[in-house]
Amino acid sequence: MPWWGWILAGLGLVSVLAAIALTFRTQVMFAVRFAKTLVTDQRVPRPLRWLIAVSLAIKVVPFPDFGVDEVVLVIVGLVLVIFYRPVIRAILEEMRAVEAARVGSPGRASPNVKTQPH
């Protein structure tokens, strides 16, 4: 392969890795905002909010937890999905609407996107 082929292959690899990193960062930031919303939203019962907050706080502190926080988060997640599905769905829809408004705001919109008058 000629030298310029190696350069093109390297640039292609760097661009793919950058795209993966940006996608991963976006997903992690969404998960953090979702966890914060679950902990602060009044529609989620207070005991579940406390369990989520304590379990996530244990993740941050370098403390041997013996996997208890993962078990608690799985149980809380199952309870939320089974018994509070409409609440979770409403919270997700609100978060997506806020994210769409933030991305589509006039100051940050791309020039090719046309906005409709109100």
Defining key terms:
single chain; mainly alpha; 118 residues; 4 helices
Number of helices: 4
Helix-strand makeup class:
mainly alpha
Mean pLDDT: 84
Question: What is the CA-CA span between the terminal residues?
Answer: 57 Å
Overall geometric form: extended
Question: Residue ranges: pLDDT <50 for 5 or more in a row?
Answer: 109-113
Instruction: Determine the strand fraction and express it as a percent band.
Output: under 5%
| Rounded radius of gyration (Å) | 21 Å
Can you summarize the main beta sheet? Answer: none
Beta-strand segment tally:
0
- The oligomeric status of these chains comes to single chain
Query: Roughly what percent helix?
Result: over 70%
Helices and strands, in order, run as HHHH
